[in-house]
Amino acid sequence: MAVLGWLTYRRRSATARSVLAGEAAAEAARKSAQENEEALAGGPTEPPEPEPEFPVVGDEKAAAFFDLDNTVMQGAAMFHFGRGLYKRHFFGKRELARFAWQQTWFRLAGIEDPEHVQEARDSVLSIVKGHRVSELMTIGEEIYDEYMAERIWPGTRALAQAHLDAGQKVWLVTAAPVETATIVARRLGLTGALGTVAESVGGVYTGKLVGELLHGPAKAEAVRALAAAEGLDLAHCAAYSDSANDIPMLSLVGHPYAVNPDGRLRKHAREHGWRLRDYRTGRKAAKIGIPAAAGLGALAGGAAAGIALHRRRR
User: Fold this and answer.
1) Euclidean distance between CA atoms 270 and 274, whole angstroms
2) Do 287 and 159 share a structural domain?
3) In this structure, are 82 and 194 located in the same domain?
């Protein structure tokens, strides 16, 4: 009998809870219906304002500035260029191992190492010294077809095209040699490129730079100078980059975008309400642009050689 009483209590308790739940739901429904009636009685509510069109068609004061490495293209243009020069016997395996190590680091870490950028710059300058500018431009066109064309991010390419379709100029801004950057810009149908300028005399490279590497704050200065020359209003302009090193450039414009951002830039963008675009896939390996399995073995071999070389040098 005690068990029967307990079951009867449970049934009553369950019934009471069901009634309570039903009454609460009915009350919430009545309240919601009443609020809707009051809103309709006062006339239709204003729809939320649509997000303003961007880029703005016909805005002659606007332009867009795109970083190249890992923003427009997977990997670093300078390293792809070095790989192409090796294929053409401009240097030997020792330099190739260093390029392979630097490129592997860049892809695995997803960030630029200033020391690697500096080493790559010095290597390229020493390699091209004494060669004609016209010769390297011709080779650069071939290298673009061999190593760079297939690494252009379609999503970033579409962003650049949207600015072009709006009648705006679009510039690459990169630490890569200006000749390489100009080739990429021309192939993509962009307006032009700001890049690191190597000194040449009589059309022959001297192995020196004009000024310094176009990197970090130097990019911001280049954008500021170009905007002044072009009569642009930076508040109307957009800039796109993957790297926290480009925060000075991104901070100049009214429409900064973090594209495939490294950790520091992603954090900064979220804190400042900047827009983010990420065209990498979900897996970590794919995010950083590691090649398919067939290419991974070759890259790993180059990395191993680079690591061994780095240890010997230390």
Assistant:
1) 6
2) no
3) yes
* pLDDT for position 113: 59
Q: Is residue 48 part of a domain?
A: no
β-partners of residue 259 are 277
pLDDT at 195: 94
Catalytic residue annotation: 67, 69
Residues in the chain with pLDDT values less than 50: 3-4, 6-10, 12, 44-45, 48, 110, 283-314
pLDDT confidence of residue 168: 97
Domain range enclosing 292: 281-313
Domain count, the chain: 2
Residue 98: what pLDDT?
Answer: 64
Residue 177 and residue 297 in one domain: no
Q: What is the pLDDT of residue 308?
A: 35
In a domain, 5, yes or no: no
- Write the secondary structure of the chain as one string of H (helix), E (strand) and C (coil): CHHHHHHHHHHHHHHHHHHHHHHHHHHHHHHHHHHHHHHHHCCCCCCCCCCCCCCCCCCCCCEEEECCECCCECCCHHHHHHHHHHHCCCCCHHHHHHHHHHHHHHHHHCCCCHHHHHHHHHHHHHHHCCCEHHHHHHHHHHHHHHHHHHHECHHHHHHHHHHHHCCCEEEEEEEEEHHHHHHHHHHCCCCEEEEECEEEECCEEEEEECCCCCCCHHHHHHHHHHHHHHCCCHHHCEEEECCHHHHHHHHHCCEEEEECCCHHHHHHHHHHCCEEECCCCCCHHHHCCCCCHHHHHHHHHHHHHHHHHHHHHC
Query: According to the model, what pLDDT value does residue 93 have?
Result: 75
Q: For 42-82, how does the pLDDT look when each residue is reduced to its tens digit (9 = 90+)?
A: 554 455 455 567 888 989 999 999 999 999 999 889 888 88
Residue 193, strand partner residues: 172
List the CATH number of the domain containing 177: 3.40.50.1000
Residue 246: what pLDDT? 97
Q: Six-digit token pair at 201?
A: 């005399």
